[in-house]
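Protocol step 4 of 5: obtain the predicted structure for the target chain.
Materials: sequence only (see below). No template structures provided, no constraints applied. The aim of this step is simply to have a reference model before the mutagenesis design in step 5. Sequence pasted as it appears in the construct record:
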Amino acid sequence: MQTNFFSLINQLDISGTVKLVIAKSDNGQLVVSILMDNEKCSPKDRKCLPPLNLTASALDLDEGFFETISQPMNQTATFLRSREQYMKSLEAAKAKGNSPAKDKVAPVLNPKEKKYNDLMAQSRKLETEGKFKEAWTKLPDPIEFPGQAELIRSKRQELSEKFAPDLFAPLDNAPKTFPVKDTNPVEEEQQEEEGIDDLEYNEYSGLETDYSEFES
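Step 4 output (structure tokens):
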């Protein structure tokens, strides 16, 4: 007996494999289950596709089987093919992300640019350490680097404001103090009066002389 069943199967748009299960029911009808599967898709995508189930007599299946399944099978094949392509792209992205990054080639600087960058880096380091005067002196010379002259002068001004008060402060700011004898005003006044009583007038010199010193 000749049949064209497989020729018609070959005309379907198939992505992956097709599983065909045929069973006979108690009332004599045939139960046909068709499931298209693609192992290249994710397990989640493969599980979400239900099988296409048909229940009919053998005569009805002979007449309309392929006409009935062709459209659903084509739609399923299109879906699986798109999901397969998605999985390929996802794997490629993962592989690219896991690949070691290529070493970036540092730009080659000429000696003058390197000198400028080194001096600025040293100045910034000193500034972070609070050494503002040293940071000022490390700045590049604006005459040597006219292209960055404005930036250098601005940075000099900024650093000058941080140490200028110390730079122009007098050498000796401490107030001068003089020792003060801690005496009682009352006692001091009494001592002065006692000293006056001991003085006598000398008619020859016109000065008051304390004779008590000679008597002793």
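Step 4 remarks: The beta strands are 17-24, 30-37, 52-56, 200-201, 208-209. Confidence is low (pLDDT under 50) at residues 167-178, 199-205.
Proceed to step 5.
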